[in-house]
Amino acid sequence: MIKFTDDELKVVKKIEQLKDEAGSHAPSFFTFKQKLPEIDIKVDACFLSNPYATDLFIEYFNKEILHTGNIRDLLQSYPSQNGVIAEILADFLKIDSKRIFIGNGAIEIIQAVIHNFTKEKIIITIPTFSSYYEYVKDGIEVVYYNLAKENDYNLDADQYITFVKQHRPDTIVLINPNNPNGGYTKIADVQRIIEELSFVKNIIIDESFIHFAYESESYQLVSLSHLVEQHPNLIVLKSMSKDFGIAGIRAGYGVMRKEYVDTLLKNGYLWNSNGLAEYFFRLYTRTDFAYKYDKVRINYIIETLEFIHELQQIPMIKVYPSMANFVLIELADGIQSTDFVSKLLISYGIYVRTCDDKIGLKGQYIRLASRSKEENDYIIKSLKDCVNTQMKLAIANETVH
Ligand SMILES: *Cc1c(COP(=O)(O)O)cnc(C)c1O
């Protein structure tokens, strides 16, 4: 049990209310600042982004847009249409532009794909990113596939294949690495899943966190998007929000069969990007930027590995294995995740996400993002302090009884 003073309890109530209002997503940093000015948020470890990539983007943006006056064009002109931005990406990704669909954030693509192409039955692996089940239209059957806690919420490819064959859905979704636990399925296993499940009309693979995963010692990028050519039922989605640290811009893309891109473009989405997103996409495909980005990506992966290693040494919490830039943490018996989140926020100014609302999790969990080295050090120090205080309280309680 976490103890709060009466004053703190008032704040706890407000925090819980904000969370309720935000539904299945966490309240944003801005919402917190506006509605809870009494809390000084020092570290936002709720949002899952690479802060060094944000720095890199700002460096380019200042030099090329802000300080040159090009900002004016960017604001007053229409951005390019969906297909034009797709062409820019096509060369870089070595994928036919007709197979690329640009989204105002990946969330728009998730919505577009599920609303338009899921007709009967969808299998959703849980725990997951909530939009996948929230966007399913009425009348469509949702079947949940539970990732097993005993297996640290990792995907068992063979078991999954058997399950999907039994249920015969028209759509399946895998997030790799998965959100909220960071579990990673090797490319070879995902490939096997795709090959075994060729009867499924839509195989959605969400690679929003793939830039943090690796299979070689050199941390080389992995992706399945090039397989769309051989497997027309494959739909690979990618948000740019997390790995490039630019959620505010709203940029994502999907790689899918040409007919799907055609259908979507006939239904709207022509001008769904904005000038800033177009600038980002152009930057993303430039070799000078790509070279620098890869450096900050790898540096961040290495720091994240150290962060996870240090978290694993802290008592009373279980850190699940992760290949993403965050970890799922299970709290010891008797600690409520909402209390723990409030405590971290009130006493240390650290904002983390409760996972109470995540279906498929059994126990009390929080999700914690890796931030800059300095912020990570502060998080480790604060968590140790918080846990120590709890342990002392628990011991004191035992002596009383
Ligand atoms: C954050 C997230 C998205 C959506 O990202 P956008 O900001 O809309 O690009 C999609 N999928 C997963 C798994 C995510 O975590």
Automatic annotation (TrEMBL):
Q: State the UniProt keywords alphabetically.
A: Aminotransferase, Transferase
Instruction: Outline the extent of the Aminotransferase class I/classII large domain.
Output: 76-382
Query: Which metal ions or organic cofactors does this protein require, according to UniProt?
Result: pyridoxal 5'-phosphate
Source organism per entry reads Pedobacter nyackensis
- InterPro entries linked: Aminotransferase_I/II_large, NHTrfase_class1_PyrdxlP-BS, PyrdxlP-dep_Trfase, PyrdxlP-dep_Trfase_major, PyrdxlP-dep_Trfase_small
Cross-referenced CDD domains: AAT_like
Entry similarity comment: Belongs to the class-I pyridoxal-phosphate-dependent aminotransferase family.
Q: What is this protein called?
A: Aminotransferase
Question: Which GO molecular function, any one, fits this protein according to its record?
Answer: pyridoxal phosphate binding
Q: What is its EC number?
A: 2.6.1.-
Q: Name one Pfam family in it.
A: Aminotran_1_2
Q: Which superkingdom does the taxonomy of this entry point to?
A: Bacteria
